[in-house]
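User: Please predict the structure of the protein below. I'd like the answer in structure-token form so I can feed it into my own downstream comparison script.

Assistant: Understood. Taking the following sequence of 290 residues as input:
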Amino acid sequence: MSTATKALHNRIALAFDFDDTLAPDTVSSLIESCGMDAEHFWQERVQPRVQDGWDPIPAAMYTLIAESRQRSDPAEKITRERLVDFGRNLTFFDGVPELFARLRRRAQETLPDIEVEFYLITAGIVETARRSPIAQHFRAMWGCDFHYTESGEIDFLKRIVTHTEKTRYLSQISKGLDNHKEVGRPFDVNRSMAADDLHIPLSQIIYVGDGMTDVPCFSMLNEAQGVAIGVFKTRTAQKWGEQNKVSAGQRVENLAPVDYREGSELLHSLTLAVEMLCKQIALRRQSQGE
């Protein structure tokens, strides 16, 4: 390889947000499944804590823990078993179950020996995602994670993923620090790494998200020349931009309705992004004599 050409990495990654990106808001659905009114939970119990200076994510998770602790009936506690059962029964937006095979197939049709990896980065409860029917497709999943009591009740947060914290996990993907390699080594992500040693450069990562918690990832990939794609459920593309107040550096490549079925704008956008990255890699191979 000439020192004048870019490093070659024969893999791409697609990283997804979870709530309202792959599935309807799972935290609100969990709240409802625990017998609470989701709107009341957010407005009357979480929002006062936010007004008192809490970050919204730990405010919501602490409120869940407090709710579980005040329940006297053990059968009504919020436990790991409840989260597992909830995750196993999750439903997804149209086309999600078939999405991973479709994108992998298209990538390999474009560049036969390309490696395609999928990751999940959520500010929601990662335990539910881990137990979901699509968990098998992801190389790693990161999100808010609970410590449990001996009886399995949620007790404390051992990992919090907030808005800007999501960018940490894009860096971990880039450096090859998946769930197992990072355990007990939380500062490895801060180490500098030569371009040739990266697992996947940020420029070969596609990130898909639905809103404000994803804007830092959009910014990071825009700066690194990766691909950011936004999705919306009930709003128009214009209202999405107005609500999220994105600046020029936070803009996405495309905004599409959250529909992953064959023929949808979103699947077409993801397919084009995958093809583009594969073709960039094919171009760089020219400098390798391949």
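That's the full token string. The chain has a mean pLDDT of 89.
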